[in-house]
Amino acid sequence: MMSNTTSSVNLDSTDLAILSALQENARLPVVELARRMNLSPTPCTLRIRRMEQAGVITGYHARLQPKTLGHALMVFVTVSLKSTDEKTLRAFNAAVKPVRQILECHMVAGGFDYLLKIRVRDMGEYREILGGVIGALPMVESTHSYFVMEEVKESSLLDVSRPREQRP
Is 60 exposed, middle or buried (0-12, 13-18, 19+ CB in 10 A)? Predict the structure, then answer.
């Protein structure tokens, strides 16, 4: 069975403050970040490298506004598979990973097997993805589409305000 394992990384309050600052602005110069953390640049850089090597920091990205780039339609799609054996799950995962319009794919427990977040230009492009990719997969039993009318909140920022052991 596939697993999402989490490894415990020892992070102190300074590490958490660095993570919080980098989430807000990953382009912050190390000299400025170090000043804010009351560190010199070398120890600050070493902390960042340690967190990168430990897999806490997995990359740095520019956040784009989809609508300004013509990707105005967001759709959540639930997918039910005919079978959930390991071979079928691997095949589905492999089939959806290269589809750039599928921004997120989550295997879930409950009334369906996967939840997809899809961002496309228009209904025509969505129909191509649904009929030509997702619906064409032999292991897919059914799909249900939910079109986003309004994005109330979207964030990829994690709450790193307190160490984990202090959280309720």
Answer: exposed
Helices (H) and strands (E) in the chain, counts: 5, 4
Tokens linked to 127: 């129909």
The model's pTM:
0.82
Adjacency order of strands within the sheet including 114-120: 102-107, 114-120, 73-81, 140-147
Cα 129 to chain centroid distance, Å, stands at 20
Alpha carbon separation from 81 to 14, 85, 86, 168 (Å, rounded): 45, 10, 12, 37
Q: What is the rounded distance in angstroms from the CA atom of residue 37 to the CA atom of residue 151?
A: 34
Crossing angle (nearest 10°) for helices 41-53 and 30-37: 100
Which residues, given as ranges, of the chain have pLDDT below 70? 1-7, 162-168
The Cα–Cα gap between 15 and 21 comes to 10
pLDDT of residue 162: 67
So what's the pLDDT on residue 5? Answer: 45
Question: What does DSSP say about strands 73-81 and 114-120: parallel, antiparallel, or unpaired?
Answer: antiparallel
